[in-house]
Design goal:
The complex is a heterodimer of chains A (593) and B (79). With 593 residues, chain A is α/β, with parallel strands linked by helices. In chain A, 40% of the residues lie in helices and 19% in strands. In chain A, strands 15-16-14-13-12-11-10-17 form an eight-stranded mixed sheet, sandwiched between helices. Chain A has a five-stranded parallel sheet with strand order 2-1-3-4-5, with helices on both faces. Chain A has a four-stranded parallel sheet with strand order 8-7-6-9. The two termini of chain A are 46 Å apart. Chain B is built from four helices and no strands. Chain B is globular, with a radius of gyration of 11 Å. The chains are: A alpha/beta (593), B mainly alpha (79). Chains A and B meet through helix 1 and helix 9 of A and helix 1, helix 2 and helix 3 of B.
Chain lengths: 593, 79
């Protein structure tokens, strides 16, 4: 919903949040999550706003909210309601109001260091306790700057200053976050700076209602939390689809000619576009795929991208659509060619009419209102489309992987027989039980895969760790490489052993970039082998339809399973008897364990 | 601005905030007349009223305001 993207109309949001919620609840296919808010100040409106932002991301939250300022008691001593709530996520909303003791001018250095350690330990104890008890994800606020500076500028520098104390405390939080999985910082220090600290710290709201920031700032806070949560559950955007004229450079390449485009350091308008190109290029290191969708002659588009002052070159893009087709149609083609859902795209175009048509015809796509060129970066950045939570090395290589795929499809066209083509790729797979180094990637994959996903069950890193430690699961991952490159971990199967000789397949997912490579058959072969070793006689498979997983509708039929039941919603149960042997299906991939 | 117009605009704010199209505010209306009007919603109401009329209540006013009539009097004195 446009109203729930940056920049916000706060006035409208506060008035209409109930209507917005009703409207969002009409949608389907939510994932449900239990979110506990442990507050050090009033949290009611933070919860309300968080709810609508999450609903907008397809996440339906159930909330537990601690009593006013009972975050410490709830965490350290527990309470029944929280225990029974089984939170998936705990959000600890503390602010500089919750720092118990600040240094004064009378304190010596050692006392202040002890103070800092005490304050930090209080929080570390909370986190440790919560992890032990709930094994869930924790989101913790850092601290915003104080709203006055007793020492003036020296407040930031001197160990007696509150600003200095908060800065040091924040650094200790970051050190903990850097060494702790499933722990994320909600950076209210940055959010409050963007919002304006004077307004943020409006004391009226503290003294009247014990809100630690002014109420109109709350949408910005809640949006920031929602972005972390949606990222954890794999709902980040994955690709940028960019217009060219007046988006990547000033001017129209077809009319003005390459030499007259505004790009480069000579003039202010050129500088703005150069910085924007740099900003976009930086996204490649996050694994974001760059593409072009422009109304232009193809030669002109390429000529513009080869402008000597431009930092983005034709080679930086995976797909370049420069033609006169409606942009919504180009986007559908790009989605198909990349094997990605168009709802994972961010479409960047200076023309409001083009944004509108794309918004109307491509469901779920983001079309930020980028305003004037000097605001492009801010508006895309503040929307948090690509919020980084679990960064894996796979992401660094993602653009290369997509490039390799483009080469593969070229090569495919030279073979008449598909199996010959597959053999020519000289594929090698590693298929074996989960290993600690891949758990993060496995969790990420379970949250990102929508199309080749039989049950659409999502696993947080904590969930995957649990499965990994449980003997009653057969859990396999598969890596695939070929002559063009290594695809990394691209498929996962989790089967639950029940009643001694039954295996129930809870999860079967595969990345779409290795579709039609027979990897699913290699996985099946290994799954059966592992199952036989454990004395399994029957394997049960499940298919739960969603808006996106039609491509695996008859997956178990292809694997030779027999359909047991199918209900009105199309949920299907299959079984395969392996007690009388099994015929190996894969003959094109060399598999090692 | 006429008192009548203030009531009209205020009524719209109340209906939005409490998501109830049947609300008709009168000078004597208090929080006990509207089901969802608790202390937490009161904050949102105050913020929405401030934004509607481009004015601010001070702390003393928010704590002493007894009914909608008094709220309107404060709004009248500010705009």
């Amino acid at each position: 919903m446009k109203e729930l993207e940056y920049p916000f109309n706060v006035e409208w949001l506060i008035k209409n949040k109930k209507k917005v919620k009703k409207q969002l609840l009409l949608k389907e296919n939510f994932i449900e999550k239990n979110i506990a808010i442990l507050g050090g100040s009033t949290t009611s409106e933070i919860k309300n706003m968080l709810e609508i932002f999450l609903l907008n991301y397809g996440i339906k939250p159930n909330f537990y909210e601690s009593e006013y300022n009972k975050f410490y008691e709830d965490a350290m001593f527990g309470n029944e309601e929280l225990d029974e709530f089984h939170p998936d996520i705990i959000y600890i909303h503390t602010t500089n109001r919750n720092i118990i003791e600040y240094p004064t001018m009378y304190n010596d250095e050692k006392t202040i260091n002890d103070m800092l350690e005490n304050e930090y330990k209080k929080f570390e104890n909370i986190w440790t306790k919560l992890f032990e008890k709930f094994n869930c994800t924790i989101i913790q606020n850092n601290f915003e700057y104080p709203y006055y500076r007793l020492l003036g500028n020296k407040d930031a520098v001197d160990i007696h200053g509150k600003t200095n104390f908060i800065t040091r405390l924040n650094q200790k939080f970051y050190d903990y976050a850097n060494k702790t999985k499933n722990f994320f910082i909600n950076d209210i220090n940055y959010i409050s700076s963007c919002y304006g600290l004077d307004k943020w710290a409006n004391q009226f709201y503290w003294h009247m209602y014990k809100y630690a920031m002014e109420v109109p700032a709350i949408p910005y806070l809640s949006f920031n939390i929602a972005n972390i949560i949606k990222s954890i559950y794999g709902k980040n955007k994955k690709a940028l689809v960019l217009d060219l004229d007046n988006t990547l450079w000033g001017g129209i390449v077809g009319d003005d000619g390459v030499e007259n485009l505004a790009i480069g350091p000579e003039v202010p308008s050129g500088q703005v576009y150069s910085e924007f190109q740099n900003y976009l290029k930086e996204h490649k290191s996050l694994g974001i795929i760059l593409n072009i969708n422009s109304k232009n002659e193809y030669e002109n588009a390429i000529a513009g991208l080869n402008h000597p002052a431009g930092t983005l070159k034709p080679d930086d893009f995976i797909i370049i659509k420069a033609n006169w087709n409606p942009k919504n149609l180009n986007i559908k083609d790009i989605a198909e060619e990349l094997n990605l859902g168009a709802d994972s795209f961010v479409f960047v175009d200076d023309n409001p009419a083009e944004r509108q048509i794309v918004q109307d015809y491509v469901e779920g796509i983001a079309t930020p209102e980028i305003d004037v060129p000097e605001n492009y970066i801010k508006i895309i950045d503040r929307n948090g489309y690509f919020e980084v939570t679990n960064f894996s090395n796979e992401d660094l290589k993602k653009n290369d992987l997509y490039k390799d795929n483009a080469k593969r499809s070229q090569m495919m066209s030279t073979f008449e027989n598909y199996e010959d083509y597959l053999l020519s790729l000289k594929m090698k797979a590693e298929i074996t039980s989960f290993k600690p180094i891949y758990l993060e990637r496995i969790s990420q994959l379970s949250n990102k895969s929508n199309q080749f996903n039989l049950t659409t069950k999502r696993y947080s890193l904590a969930d995957i760790e649990e499965v990994n430690n449980d003997e009653n699961y057969i859990k396999l991952y598969g890596k695939l490489e070929d002559i063009f490159g290594d695809n990394g971990v691209i498929t996962v199967v989790i089967g639950n052993i029940k009643n001694k000789d039954e295996l129930h397949i809870d999860l079967w997912i595969m990345s779409c970039r290795v579709l039609k490579r027979n990897m699913e058959f290699a996985m099946m072969d290994m799954l059966v082998k592992k199952a036989q070793e454990k004395g399994i006689k029957t394997i049960y498979g499940y298919y739960y339809p969603t808006a996106k997983n039609k491509m695996v509708n008859n997956f178990y039929d292809l694997q030779g399973f027999e359909e047991v039941s199918c209900d009105e919603q199309g949920n299907k149960v299959y079984k395969l008897d392996i007690s009388n042997g099994y015929k190996i299906k894969n003959n094109v991939i060399e598999v090692t364990e | 601005m006429e008192k009548e117009e203030i009531y009209e605009r205020l009524n719209k704010v109340f209906r939005d905030i409490f998501d109830d199209e049947s609300i008709v505010v009168k000078p004597e209306t208090t929080s006990s007349d509207i089901e969802d009007w608790d202390s937490l919603e009161h904050i949102n109401l105050v913020v929405a009223v401030e934004q509607e009329f481009g004015m601010k209540f001070n702390m003393n006013e928010v704590t002493t305001m007894k009914n909608v009539g008094e709220m309107v009097d404060i709004i009248m004195s500010r705009i």
